[in-house]
């Protein structure tokens, strides 16, 4: 089978988007927290994580021009986008983690509790998503804009 595509596949582009958004958002948070970390070993771990995530983003950014679609200062609007994105990532990750945990649960009462909490996480995700979507912070139906936002956010996170 010949493998010489002119662009990335849609599904891998979307996964690349998720990874880029997740890492850029957390990189900003790590950099914001670095000055508050007093423990030298933890500070070193954060510095290592920051360097690793910066490298990850730089590598991923090389693939954005291959997506199948034809630097910001942290203003108040950018902080709203950042905080909303961070909450969305938390909610999305919670849904995934609860779903995995439920598959490992043998105790019926714990399973019920986790299912209840999973449903709450799904509700939170929906509320945060629509908050962002209604404000133009998550253009989910515009792949070109979505990826453009990823590039801007990743470059901003690297430059902080």
Automatic annotation (TrEMBL):
Name the InterPro entries on file. Answer: Ferritin-like, Spore_coat_CotF-like
Q: Name one GO biological process term.
A: sporulation resulting in formation of a cellular spore
Pfam families hit by this protein: Coat_F (PF07875)
Per the similarity annotation, which family is this? Belongs to the CotF family.
Keyword match NADP: no
Q: What is this protein called?
A: Spore coat protein
Predominant location: other
Q: Where in the cell is it found?
A: Spore coat
Positions of transmembrane segments: none
Which PANTHER family does the entry mention?
A: SPORE COAT PROTEIN F-LIKE PROTEIN YHCQ
Gene3D superfamilies tied to this protein: 1.20.1260.10
Alphabetically list the UniProt keywords.
Capsid protein, Sporulation, Virion
